[in-house]
């Protein structure tokens, strides 16, 4: 193998590595963007779950209040 052939092979190897590095950076950027979106969605989901939890607590309190009212109606002297 001549010196020129070696230089050409090295040049091709460096170009291939540079291309692979660029592709990896692009993929990493896409993954980072997807991870950020997932984090936002998780935050929204947690907010929604907290709101549903508060609604359930209010609903439970309303049911308890209705049960007490029914109990007083069924046993007016008690």
Tell me about this structure:
By secondary structure, this protein is mostly helical. The protein contains 1 helix and no strands. The protein starts with a helix and ends with a helix. The protein has one helix at residues 3-74. It is rod-shaped and about 110 Å long. The longest helix is centred in the middle third of the chain and has 72 residues, at 3-74.
End-to-end distance = 107 Å
Number of strands: 0
Share of helix, binned: over 70%
Shape: rod-shaped
Low-confidence region ranges? none
Proportion of residues in β-strands: under 5%
Number of helices: 1
Mean pLDDT: 93
Radius of gyration based on Cα positions: 33 Å
Structural class: mainly alpha
Task: Give me the strand/helix succession.
Answer: H
* Biggest sheet features: none
Describe, in short, the structure shown:
This protein has 78 residues and is mainly alpha-helical.
Q: Which properties best describe this structure?
A:
mainly alpha, 78 residues, 1 helix
